[in-house]
Amino acid sequence: DEQLNLDDGRWEDIHVVTGALKLFLRELPEGVVTAGANIPPCPPSLAEIQDLSLRGRCIRDLVQSLPPAHHDTMKVLFRHLCRVVEHKEENRMSVQSVAIVFGPTLLRPASEEGNMAMHMVFQNQVVEHILNHYGYIF
C-alpha cells in the first residue's frame, strides 16, 4: 500500500532499483521457479543432466509447466534481462554477470542441504541458458 514517487532522486541509482527487485523476489513466499517443479522424464535435478540438448528441453518444459503467474513473471523479467544484456558494452552486464546477480534469487535450492557453491554454479548456468535461449523457452 506504500505510494512510491519514482521521480524521487534515489530511484536514479540502478543499484537501488536492482537491489529492490532482488529483495522483492527473495522475499516472495514461494520462489519464481517453484521448488516442487519437476518434469518427467527429467531427473529430480537438472544439474544431473549431462546432455546439454536434453537439459535445454527440460529447462523449457520446466518453465512452460510453471503456474501462469510464475511463468508470466519469468517471461517479463527475462525479456527485460535480455535487454540489459543487449547493452553490455555500456553497462558491463554480460549474460554471465546477470546470471551471477539473479541466479540465486530466482532459483532457490529445494533445501539448504548440500554444497551451496554447486547450487550457485547450477543456478547461474540455468539463468544463462534461459537468457541465451529466451525465444525457444518462451
From TrEMBL:
SMART domains: RhoGAP (SM00324)
Superkingdom of the source species: Eukaryota
GO cellular component, one term: cytoplasm
GO BP annotation list: signal transduction
Matches recorded under PROSITE patterns: RHOGAP
Single Gene Ontology MF annotation: GTPase activator activity
Protein name: RHG27 protein
Gene that encodes the chain: Arhgap27_0
